[in-house]
Amino acid sequence: MATTGITHTVTLIPGDGIGPEITRAMQTVIAASGADINWEIQQAGEASFEMSGELLPQAVLDSIRSNKVALKGPLTTPVGHGFRSLNVTLRKELDLFSCIRPSQSFHGTGARYEDVDIVLFRENTEDLYAGIEFEQGSEGVRRIAEVVADLGAGDIRDDAGLSLKPISVFGTRRIMKAAMDYAVANGRKKVTIIHKANIMKHTDGLFLRVCREVAAEYAQSAPEIEVDDWIVDAACTRLVTNPELFDVLVCPNLFGDIVSDLCAGLVGGLGIAPGANIGDDFALFEPVHGSAPSYAGQNLANPTAIMLSAVMMLRHLGEQNAAERVHKAIAEVIAEGKVLTYDLMRMRYGTTDGASSTQEYADAIAERIVG
Question: For burial by CB atoms within 10 Å, which of 167, 177, 279, 324 has the most?
């Protein structure tokens, strides 16, 4: 097996819920690839809180800053209350401004489409996910409501909570440049800007305008790349009727989160949806799905998403041969259809009878790599 011969130290955060078991399965497969990865294990989330009382210990951030590259399992985020998303916190702390989420068809999944190959770029630090929020009844809501009223911009009800939606020229330029650079480097044909500029003219309108300006800067050096734009609701309709029309998508933060899950649904769901969060200095790779605590410890979960995230990591590290071997082995095992986790079995055959465990599935992929 041809590898670079370089030892790469990577921060590994197993995560919560099903995280530890899918992480072990991923390690089995990456070990078989021949890439020399030294995993530096760090705990965050519920596992860390139980040990130290901290959800995100400083040691985790220090490790990532030292190693430059990290891979993590899913971390639990409460809905509507409690602590803010650790995933969002990691992205902001490390300025991981570019979230990259590929959605690629694998033959044999039983998904509705067989030929989808879409890569979504999501701005990761701004928009409604910037975390600028004010609780109902707070002084912040009262003061902002007064300013809005004084400016004649409208009325905010006394019982409202508020989230602010900042979108900047700086943030938009760098996510569009990342999408265009990816398209150039990977022989892609089209970049589509997703927005709601018809309604939110000063935020999404700015996003659309700046993306178009960046596209114009690439027009001479990369004339082969078409750039168009779609209003987000129309784009969602077209994605589920004609996904072959799309190639690379670039989105503001909130729409990127929603549309990337839609794209994952086109190819079989979040169980096979990888992700990368990349900035100028650091890169964090992770599956898109959540921690699924009700399935934790049962050795049933599908580890494909974290394996494909590791494939993205290998490519980032320059281990192209190892990445291609893992990707090919995953595709072959899924296509063969003999060793599948319960969700893949149900999607393909309509039953979970004969489903394989998390580790059995990983072992079959590892055997395919070395065999």
Answer: 167
